Amino acid sequence: MYVHQRQGSLEVICGPMFSGKSEELIRRIKRAIIARQRVQVFKPALDDRYDVSAIASHSQRKHDAIPVKDSEELRRHLDPEAEVVALDEVQFLDEGLLAVIDGLAARGVRVIAAGLDQDSNGEPFGIMPILLAKAEYITKLQAICMVCGAAAGRTQRLVHTGGQVLVGAAEAYEARCRHCHEIPDGTGQRLLEEPARGE
Ligand SMILES: Nc1ncnc2c1ncn2[C@@H]1O[C@H](COP(=O)(O)OP(=O)(O)O)[C@@H](O)[C@H]1O
Ligand SMILES: Cc1cn([C@H]2C[C@H](O)[C@@H](COP(=O)(O)O)O2)c(=O)[nH]c1=O
Ligand SMILES: [Zn+2]
């Protein structure tokens, strides 16, 4: 006879900026609360754009969250009774989070992690590729390309400052499709020019 235990799992919500990751995370958090589950919500302290101690979407939806500077601080705040642990902006958290998430899922906790799968150069962002490999469930969202209106899987940086990490919103970024996304090469030239016909 099988004995079913409460199954832990990892759900990852990814996609470019403005694709609705935070809205979707808040929706799942609200449903878990309606189901009277014990929910804990975290975000990296680094992301202080709209609110220091809340997940906030670009459409002003919010949910209280514990800001943490790294995975060690997150580990210290964990409620041993939590049934659901939700994390926003996980691309900013360190590799130590992987062991924390594995430990939670092994204890039967439902972990929901939202974050950018790609940086503004279209490269994998932080621990996201590993989380995607480890997840039981993946939701990849698309925004609307601000140039052509197509579905957008990438984020265009509009300012020529910063390295991979530059906290910001619409003043510094917009959603773009693969075709309209440009990777700066330092000269202001397009890197991804379409080959001329006949080439
Ligand atoms: N280019 C865009 N495509 C889709 N939604 C956009 C765009 N620009 C602004 N928005 C707004 O952003 C909201 C999604 O915000 P949010 O959940 O914070 O996204 P993410 O967490 O993926 O950055 C949308 O519901 C919409 O109101
Ligand atoms: C593409 C890209 C984004 N960021 C920053 C900008 C924002 O502070 C967050 C993403 O927030 P969202 O909830 O997904 O809108 O990440 C960055 O630092 N570097 C990048 O390349
Ligand atoms: Zn486009």
UniProtKB/TrEMBL annotation:
Subcellular location: Cytoplasm
Binding residues annotated for Zn(2+), in chain numbering: 145, 148, 177, 180
GO molecular function, one term: kinase activity
Catalysis: reaction(s): thymidine + ATP = dTMP + ADP + H(+)
Residues making up the signal peptide according to the UniProt record: none
Positions of the catalytic residues: 89 (proton acceptor)
EC number: 2.7.1.21
Annotated ATP binding sites: 15-22, 88-91
SUPFAM superfamilies in the record: Glucocorticoid receptor-like (DNA-binding domain), P-loop containing nucleoside triphosphate hydrolases
Enzyme superclass (EC): transferase
Family in the record: Belongs to the thymidine kinase family.
Description of how the protein assembles with itself and partners: Homotetramer.
Protein name, entry field: Thymidine kinase
Gene: tdk
